[in-house]
Amino acid sequence: DIIADSYIDMETMIPALDEYDYIKDISSSPNETLIYYSIGAENGGLGSNGSMVIYNRANYLYYVEDFGFDKTQLIVNCILQDPNREMLYVGTNTGLILYNLTSMSIYSIHGETENWEITTLEWINEQLWFGLETEPHLYTYVRIYDPILETITDFEPSSMMYPVVNDILFNQATNELFFTTNYGFHAYNISNEELKFFGEEDGLSTYLLARMDYSTISNEIYIGSTLGGVNIFDPLYDDIPPQLFINGISTDDIISGQISIQITAQDYSGIDWVNATLNSNENWYSDIRYLNFDFNSSEYSDGYYEFMIETTDFNGLATVIVISFTISNVLINEFSKILFVAVLSTVSIIALFRKRRK
């Protein structure tokens, strides 16, 4: 009790914790009446047996559930209650268990035959997101359960998150997802589908990250680690300029005729605008991350030209690329002459043929 500056040893309230004392996680019901203890087996049951313990703060009663598994081998990593249903999502070393709180029974199990190890659970946009331990047959390490359709889909960008996703955090205000793993920290911008990675070279004390929490006061993320202390991440800090990808033209090209130019800008924070300027006077502009246009050399004199291509992200960071090229319409002119001679010869042959027929 923070206000009273006192504490209660929960083993006096829940004697079963003497047997189930390797507590992996603690969560609660939305109204905080029910407390859920995620307990893992340790040393084949010698150190602890694995189960879910539900404690009712209103009547001081508790209930132990092992789901019919061998509790000397069962590891319950995390528990999350569906905010809209009387349903618990239980992440274990044998899969994802859906547990009906009304009937106090298993509703369904996912990933049991594949031996999914569920490491973390998070409720995001009316769906359950969960992280998994690395398995050789797994392609993605984050999956999404839809409680309405009762289907599970892959979160494709998580194929880049290796080897274990330990925690998932969602910031609704910025529409961002954050992931801690055994190999660094990942941020994902849902709006523009950009994924960003942070490792020791970016300031982390270690790659081995554990749980995290978000401070609404400082707007920072506090990241726990294994043997590396606590790292503090500022989501608003940005020192990486946007990237530019240009197709259709490159430096030292010789342009003759019409070409199509495709420019794509990419940045985690989002792209404000993209602009292409020809010799400082003619420009093409886009207020999205894509800029596509056709360029016809026949509209310009032969000579040396420069395209200055610029983009800015929503944090004000800019990238500029200058492409130098040459316009040479000689090929076009020569082709026109050849075409003219060919047409003239054809007309002459037709005229001669008609004359001979007379």
From TrEMBL:
<keyword id="KW-0812">Transmembrane</keyword>
<keyword id="KW-1133">Transmembrane helix</keyword>
<feature type="transmembrane region" description="Helical">
    <location>
        <begin position="338"/>
        <end position="354"/>
    </location>
</feature>
<protein>
    <submittedName>
        <fullName>Uncharacterized protein</fullName>
    </submittedName>
</protein>
<keyword id="KW-0472">Membrane</keyword>
<dbReference type="InterPro" id="IPR015943">
    <property type="entry name" value="WD40/YVTN_repeat-like_dom_sf"/>
</dbReference>
